[in-house]
Amino acid sequence: MGLDYSYEIITPARNVARALSQLADLAPRTRRVPPLTVTLPGGEQVNVPFTSRFRSDPVDCSTSRTLSLDTSIMVDVDDSVRGFSEVRDSELDELGRIAIGYVYLTVEFAPPLHPHYASLQFTAATSGMSRMFERSSSVRAVFTDLTAASGGVCCALDTESDTLHICWLNGQPIQETVPGPRFAGYRDLVATWTGQDRL
Question: How far is C-alpha 128 from the chain's CA centre?
Fold first, then answer.
């Protein structure tokens, strides 16, 4: 059984459309898939250049708790990305980035531990990609930047161990763990998220 490391972004539930729009901007421009229309809880619609369960049929999440997307994401090339993917100049875009995919995204709209937020979990497709998720500062930057752009409160790397690695919290990059000196457990982390009084 392979490794399934993942980055999880936590954002207020009202920000999911914004997060998906920001994610769409990270898609390869050369990828040729029909736009996928997603109807979110509350009826808002967003078009994304991805598939859902490898299909492009419209997805209605107005009465669903989850959304699954198959994504491909542009990342800057660092040593870890280069080690994972044999980078050729012809594969680089005008910003020197390369596409990484598939990265499987599961959106949970109202997780039981924090129902006013949404969870966007990006899971690596292979063990090699999982190791790159853990080692690459470029990949980490993609997810922390996406957290910031979508108004998220937290971004964490799950390496399928007893320790959760926090890399973004309340508008700031950090390096903390759960459990760790600052957070004894996950509920302690949730209690620090800003803006809960406005939800």
Answer: 18
pTM of the model: 0.95
Helix or strand run (H / E) with residue 169: strand 164-169
3-state secondary structure 80-124: HHHHHCCCCHHHCCCCCEEEEEEEEEEEECCCCCCCCEEEEEEEE
Q: How far apart are CA 187 and CA 179, in angstroms?
A: 10
pLDDT at 196: 80
Pairwise CA distance, residues 156 & 143, whole Å: 9
Phi-psi region of 124 (alpha: psi -120 to 50; beta: other; left: phi over 0): beta
Smallest CA-to-CA distance from 197 within 19, 12, 60 is with 12
Q: What is the pLDDT of residue 199?
A: 67
